[in-house]
Design a protein that fits this description.
The structure is a homodimer. By secondary structure, chain A is of the alpha/beta class. In chain A, 44% of the residues lie in helices and 18% in strands. In chain A, the strands form four sheets. The first copy, chain A, has an eight-stranded parallel barrel, surrounded by seven helices. In chain A, helix 6 crosses helix 7, helix 11 packs antiparallel against helix 16 and helix 15 runs antiparallel to helix 16.
Chain lengths: 396, 396
């Protein structure tokens, strides 16, 4: 499933290749976020043109709307949204803990009311697996509890232990359902299988928790690795903690993750943070910043973010970023895009979304090339030094 | 400039070809509306893929934001928005009378406060021409007063007479500035000329007013035609009057328009209305319905509009319209688009906008083919009979 092609000498950066039912993913890889079955403002065709290798679908959001049965009716998320590349689905845990109301967590699972209409719902590790199987996920995630920041050591310890117990139940569910899925594989209707890869073909990643406590991160990593998964994610990071705490959480867990499996740092981050995470041995990243900041008129560049609403860009004939080959920079000026954003024209946020996604995807492309050349660590240092966060990089 | 290729025998429908500085337009033609320098939610590249022949830019909106000087700085609207096809600009009159505040109309021109920040502004026929020249319009419109509906005969008569006097001043301005423009044509910098065609290359259309009064429509048409323009528009229609009144306004003016010039029915309408207008001798149309209704989740089809928010479409695997070759129907289902609209995902309104624009452009394509074959009138009758307005076709 995963080949580790190269390990950097000066850092922990890795070059790898992950095989999924819908195609190969070269790592380090950025995973654009398609929360509700759409990477915001961008079409699947445009994602292909941007060379996106994989996208993420949010299990919680899709479960709440349009619902598991609707997506199953359409033959899975790939067919529903017309994306034929790999799809990673989160377990829904993060949104249950950040969006839903009236949560009640027990060892069985989570009772909550969804954020849209308050419908009382229950999700267990097994149900999270079932939903992801209905979506036809290529990479499924175990259900985890994502504790808030800050968080007491006791709570974080108990929570991480429960996450490990839930991870085991997810793995057990998958093993129990492998045979049933094999039956699906043998069905004569080739198309529907291609869209909802059988559970046996899909990968399952475990999630390391433990908040900002070194001992808990280590214990969690050891417990999860012992269960054995196709890949390992670091969860519970980028939830409001200082950047050093985030880096430490990854550094505490990483030594206990096997080298021959992909590592996924969930829900982050800024461009420098991604390079720092790669240097700490992480392979995959998902983040809403490229599309979320675009809707706010903020574009990424190698020297930091640009707020295109600023008056200084009104007569600027240059592209968002010089020499950028994205569809926005090839054809449009900063001045025009600024006008579109000021006038609340949708094309404005479309163009910045394309640029920002290209920026993130291209950064990973560059990182892979630098790892291959043995120059990654110098590249990272130079990039981080030249990158300035001139505007907000987090938006509510 | 305009060739009348064919006149229908059973109706007044015409097949024609209009030459502009940025390309040919086959008529009957639909002109997508790019109010603020962007056809809402659609890129110039997508407009080309939809075979849009020409688009409209709203002089008032672009004058208010980003302003004439900014667009002149970028070399005109073509370069600013990266659209290399023909652009028609309205005069700004309609928006001054529908959007601006504290209007004061005199024979000199109109004093008003713009709707964005209330800046006091004055636009005269000459200033309207200057702005359109700065935009680099291929087809400019004279400044007119668009009286409201309903409207007294006296007011409509005086207003139409003033519109004729303003039309003369617009024509005079163009003649005075033709020589200055010839100088521009001889400049060595080919590119900037291509983007702001010299005034001598741009076409100027007169506008017939006269509200819903037959005698005034006739007088206005005669007065405007006597001045001599490159084309003739029917203005002051589709402003709230019953459909029969709209048809009558066009029927009253049409016999007085020369056959060898294009006729443009401004700001309308539904698909059946467009065919009825073609049957009454009209050649060009602009309308916000395709993009405006799209943002409301409403799609056009040959049997009427579909409100894709309706629950009936949740599991519908069919495209918006069977056999449609637009980018939305080729790749996406009604069920998916419904989900996107319900979830307020921008891709949903993008896809319906593409479908609706394709529907309007393709309807004109079909009308041209039917006129060529001598079957237009039968086509019109069948289409109108089968088309049902199931949902609102006008949105505020």
């Amino acid at each position: 499933m995963f080949e580790l092609l190269l390990s950097d000498i000066e850092s922990k950066a890795r070059l790898g290749r992950l095989t999924t039912a819908h195609g190969l993913i070269e790592t380090p890889a950025f995973v654009p976020v398609g929360t509700q079955g759409s990477v915001k403002a961008v079409s699947p065709r445009e994602l292909h043109e941007l060379n996106a290798q994989i996208i993420l679908g949010n299990t919680y959001h899709l479960f709440v709307r349009p619902g598991r049965d609707v997506i199953r009716h359409f033959g899975g998320l790939h067919q529903f949204m017309n994306w034929d590349g790999p799809i990673l689905t989160d377990s829904g845990g993060y949104q249950i803990f950040s969006l839903a109301k009236l949560r009640k967590i027990t060892d069985d699972g989570v009772h909550f009311q969804n954020h849209l209409d308050g419908t009382p719902t229950f999700i267990s590790p097994e149900i999270a697996m079932e939903i992801q199987a209905a979506l036809g996920s290529d990479i499924a995630m175990v259900l985890d509890e994502c504790p808030p920041w800050p968080c007491e050591h006791d709570y974080a310890a108990q929570s991480a232990e429960m996450t490990t117990r839930w991870a085991k139940r997810c793995k057990d569910w998958k093993e129990r359902n492998a045979e049933r899925s094999t039956f699906n594989v043998q069905r004569p209707t080739g198309e529907s299988i291609n869209c909802q890869p059988s559970t046996i073909d899909s990968l399952l990643f475990g999630i390391v928790q433990g908040a900002t406590f070194d001992d808990l991160r280590k214990q969690s990593a050891q417990g999860i690795v012992e269960l054995g998964f196709d890949g390992y994610a670091i969860g519970g990071v980028s939830v409001g903690e200082p950047e050093e705490e985030m880096m430490r959480a990854v550094e505490s867990a990483e030594p206990f993750l096997p080298a021959d499996k992909p590592r996924y740092a969930m829900g982050l981050g800024t461009p420098p943070q991604l390079l720092e995470m790669i240097a700490r041995g992480m392979d995959m990243f998902d983040c809403v910043l490229p599309t979320r900041l675009a809707r706010n008129g903020t574009a990424f560049s190698a020297t930091g973010t640009l707020n295109l609403k600023n008056a200084e860009f009104a007569r600027d004939k240059r592209p968002v970023e010089e020499k950028c080959v994205c569809p926005a920079c090839r054809e449009f000026s900063r001045g025009y895009i600024r006008h579109l954003i000021k006038a609340e024209e949708i094309l404005g946020l479309r163009l910045i979304s394309l640029h920002n996604l290209h920026f993130y995807l291209n950064l990973m492309n560059r990182a892979r090339a630098e790892i291959k050349q043995g120059t990654f660590d110098q590249f990272r240092k130079t990039f981080v030094a030249e990158y300035k966060t001139r505007d907000a990089t987090t938006v509510e």
